[in-house]
Amino acid sequence: xxxxxxxxxxxxxxxxxxxxxxxxxxxxxxxxxxxxxxxxxxxxxxxxxxxxxxxxxxxxxxxxxxxxxxxxxxxxxxxxxxxxxxxxxxxxxxxxxxxxxxxxxxxxxxxxxxxxxxxxxxxxxxxxxxxxxxxxxxxxxxxxxxxxxxxxxxxxxxxxxxxxxxxxxxxxxxxxxxxxxxxxxxxxxxxxxxxxxxxxxxxxxxxxxxxxxxxxxxxxxxxxxxxxxxxxxxxxxxxxxxxxxxxxxxxxxxx
Length: 255
Known about the structure:
The chain is built from nine helices and eight strands. The two termini are 17 Å apart. It folds into two domains: 2-129 and 241-252, Rossmann fold (3-Layer(aba) Sandwich), CATH 3.40.50.1400; 134-235, Rossmann fold (3-Layer(aba) Sandwich), CATH 3.40.50.1400. It is elongated. The chain is α/β, with parallel strands linked by helices. It has a four-stranded parallel sheet with strand order 2-1-3-4, sandwiched between helices. Strands 6-5-7-8 form a four-stranded parallel sheet, sandwiched between helices. The chain has helices spanning 15-29, 57-69, 74-78, 99-116, 134-143, 164-173, 186-195, 212-227, 243-252; strands at residues 2-9, 45-49, 86-92, 120-124, 149-154, 176-179, 200-206, 232-235.
């Protein structure tokens, strides 16, 4: 059985996340078993976006499958291979179990599976935020900055229960949770920490890559500096494309 891997992100009008996704795909490509055909390996790890793409996700999946496996239908039968010899593993690089992870992506994957029929198996892997070792990557970023207290700032979701994973992650890191799109906000959490006497506050953006939202977070922190002039604010970097992150993604493909 031959496998290919599609890394799925939300998508953005900003070019930086797409560039970072391409870098991450190359890092994941290095994880391929040595017996893979090296001349074709770059076609076995691809990227796709749920939104901000000219094509809907199910069409992106089909297009990638074609580039990875070629003609999966009649071609397989001509070569005497049985159906389901090819497997496409899709890894959602999302940090929260929101509507996209729990509803939108499974629908698109089902549409793609329906389109390709029995010529390949499309496996939807666990989303990135579910990996237990993600905390270690965040801990490394926290260790690099000295502060009295931390805020873990995630995007947030209106899906009931989706914030619980962020709250648990924040607690394990010794931080408090805040959200960009839903309460509690960054400003409200800062006000509570300042009222409690903290004067050194660091913010860790719980996002994959730098982009429009992280720029907006940086601008918001500049406003907080004016509002709380006695407080020293520090802003850490989002996860970014790294060998460590690629290792977590590769691990998810075996689940």
